[in-house]
From TrEMBL:
Keywords of this entry: Hydrolase, Lipid degradation, Lipid metabolism, Secreted, Signal
Major subcellular site: secreted
Protein family membership: Belongs to the 'GDSL' lipolytic enzyme family.
Originating organism: Capsella rubella
Protein name: GDSL esterase/lipase 7
Entry GO CC: extracellular region
Superkingdom of origin: Eukaryota
Localization (cell): Secreted
A single GO BP: lipid catabolic process
GO molecular function, one term: hydrolase activity, acting on ester bonds
N-terminal signal peptide: 1-19
Stored InterPro entries: GDSL, GDSL_esterase/lipase, SGNH_hydro_sf, SGNH_plant_lipase-like
Length: 364
């Protein structure tokens, strides 16, 4: 395990050396990323956890396994490109120390959730609360020394983009696991969505108090459409998705969008953008050909029904036509799907960001 980690770090050094160019005039000084495996760029490589992706065929189209839960780049990798920034290094990597942190840091951790207990059956993971604490450490130990006075640091943080993609695990690795977690016995579906939003609101206030001002809240995708959930339903189910699960997620997303509106009026100087990932991704499931996709309900690398019964295993042979698949493994999109999502949420012509695109947010 130690030798594998050393190899990953060395490969990161090569990758980071080639990925530093970015735009000479980035739209934002930095991009700080918080979330789960959808945007984890390798943090879980460094902690004792079952939730890791530092082995082939993960990263097969990146060139090597980085710890990303994808065959290639994630949504925030493409998002950084739209912002004119280099790919953001994971916080736990040696690459995030010193001047490298000035362009941003990725704190996301696979299996993490809004609630601290979420995903605990996987072992170690950095909860959203823990990620915010890491952000505070970055500011105090790494960023502060690069600014002559506190006002300059505040201005830098206020102009930086804060990306938050969290909440999916609070369903698939908590509420929807009654044999491991008690939340579904304690809370109704609406009460649980309220709990998540109340907790998330307090966490966002922590980020605001640390200096974050431009924040992007990514809604949860239609979790009832992922291979993992499809593999659990009856073989007689002809629906493309598990409707009951999608309805739960929609309750969360409605409240998340309302939270963005509320915070825009209650936190002075802040601006929140809500990314409607649910509707976009659902359309990709229902109308894959509209996006150049062919297979929308089966994992490119997985096992069992829909490739969702057991996720992508070490050295497993994935599908060859990966650009035609919506799902890479039992839970995560392919690089092709991530590119489509990023274009529709980060670019100047984004159609699924409210009230403005991330590109426009960065220009403010």
């Amino acid at each position: 395990m130690k030798s594998l980690l050393i190899c990953v770090v060395l490969l990161e050094l090569v990758w980071f050396g080639h990925g530093q160019s970015g735009d000479h005039h980035p739209l934002a000084p930095a991009f700080f990323v918080f979330g789960d495996s959808l945007v984890d760029s390798g943090n879980n490589n460094y902690i004792p956890t079952l939730a890791r992706a530092n082995y082939f065929p993960y990263g097969i189209d990146f060139g090597f396994p980085t710890g990303r839960f994808c065959n290639g780049r994630t949504v925030v990798d493409f998002g950084a490109t739209y912002l004119g920034l280099p790919l953001v290094p994971p916080y736990l990597s040696p690459l995030s120390i010193g001047p490298n942190s000035l362009r941003g840091v990725n704190y996301a951790s696979a299996a993490a959730g809004i609630l601290d207990e979420t995903g605990q059956h996987y072992g170690a993971r950095t909860t959203f609360n823990g990620q915010i604490s890491q952000f505070e450490i970055t500011i105090e130990l790494h960023l502060r020394r690069f600014f002559q006075n506190p006002a300059d640091l505040r201005k830098y943080l206020a102009k930086s983009i804060i990306g938050i993609n969290i909440g999916s695990n609070d369903y698939i690795n908590n509420y929807l696991m009654p044999e491991r977690y008690s939340t579904s016995q304690i809370y109704s579906e609406e009460e649980y969505a309220d709990l998540l939003i109340k907790t998330l609101s307090a966490q966002i206030s922590r980020l605001y108090n640390l200096g974050a001002r431009k924040m992007v809240l990514a809604g949860s995708g239609p979790l009832g459409c992922i291979p993992s959930q499809l593999s659990m339903v009856s073989a007689n189910n002809n629906s493309r998705c598990v409707i009951k699960i999608n309805n739960m997620v929609s309750m969360f997303n409605i409240r998340l969008k309302d939270l963005a509106n509320t915070l825009n009026t209650t936190l002075p100087g802040s601006f929140f953008v809500y990314q409607n990932v649910y509707d976009l991704f659902h359309d990709m499931v229902v109308n894959p050909s509209r996006y150049g996709l062919v297979v929308a309900n089966e994992a490119c690398c997985g096992n069992g029904r829909y490739g969702g019964a057991l996720t992508c295993l070490p050295l497993q042979q994935p599908c060859l036509d990966r650009h035609q698949y919506l799902f890479w493994d039992a839970f995560h999109p392919t690089e092709t799907a991530n590119k489509i999502i990023a274009h529709n949420t980060f670019s100047k012509s984004a159609n699924y960001s409210y009230p403005i695109s991330v590109y426009e947010l960065a220009k403010l």
